[in-house]
Design goal:
Blueprint (H helix, E strand, L loop, with lengths): L1 H22 E4 L3 E7 L2 E6 L2 E4 L5 E7 L3 E4 L3 E4 L5 E12 L2 H6 L4 H17 L4 H6 L1 H16 L4 E12 L2 H85 L3 H16 L12 H24 L2
Antiparallel strand pairs: 1-4, 2-3, 2-5, 6-8, 7-8, 8-9
Amino acid sequence: MDLVVVIVPAVVVFVVIILIALSVRLVQQGKVGVIKRLGQYRAIREPGIVLLVPFVDQLQLVDIREVPRPGDRQQVISRDNVAVQVTATIFSQIVDARAALFSVASYEVAVDQQSRSALRSVFGSVTLDEALSGREQINTQIQQQMEAVTDKWGIRINRVEIVEILPPPNILQAMALQKQADQEKRAVIFQSEGQRQSAINVADGQKQAAILEAEGTRQAAILNAEGTRQAAILNAEGRAQAINTVYSAIRQAAPDPTLVSILQLDTLSKFAESDNATIVVPYEAAGILGAAQALRSVIQAAPSVDSATP
């Protein structure tokens, strides 16, 4: 009897603990709980404590955080028939837990298979060069193709990232040779462009030097001509002043024919003193000789006048 008294309370306590364990569940942050009652959808519970009907309700947790799904390396064929190895990562998120659980048997497998199909489809529509140079466009196209199917599953594709595109070894070698040739071509172009620019700079410098030299020559010629002109003006002014002075002196002295004859004879004497073998006698030489005779007569007559004066 004592044993029964001990066992019955223990069984009751054990049953109560089991019922409490089956009735109270905890939903962590970042997840939601989908309640199914007798196998049928009942409700969705947010993070926190959830109360269930034991043996009737069933709680299934669904992760609603963004989940990166790295895919394995997959072989695809591009539009130009090049087999490449591609690795992509899909970032998906459940936005409708009910649709994710009841619209597809396994949403994780479905997303993985859909990503493979979209990857083959998109890469089959582009060439290898387009795939290597346009990863952003490929990511967008894969995302759009997947969203057209996953929206009805309650799954949102946030983004798709192409991690690796690996062409065959022979294609890689050909691409390396092409890149090397392109680099050499660009180097030659840059070198020729530099030589061209250098030649232009040298020619421009020579042009500027020639212009400056011509300008200097022009300025020198102008200054030389200006100096010659000023010298000629000053020379002419000096001669004019000399002539004016001589003429004024002659007018003030009131010369008579005798003085003019003396000046003419003085001029002829200067001609005779020159080193020239030929002496040009002016046309008026006869008049000058006559003036000389008249002067001689005056000189000869001068003593007799002086002697008769006393």
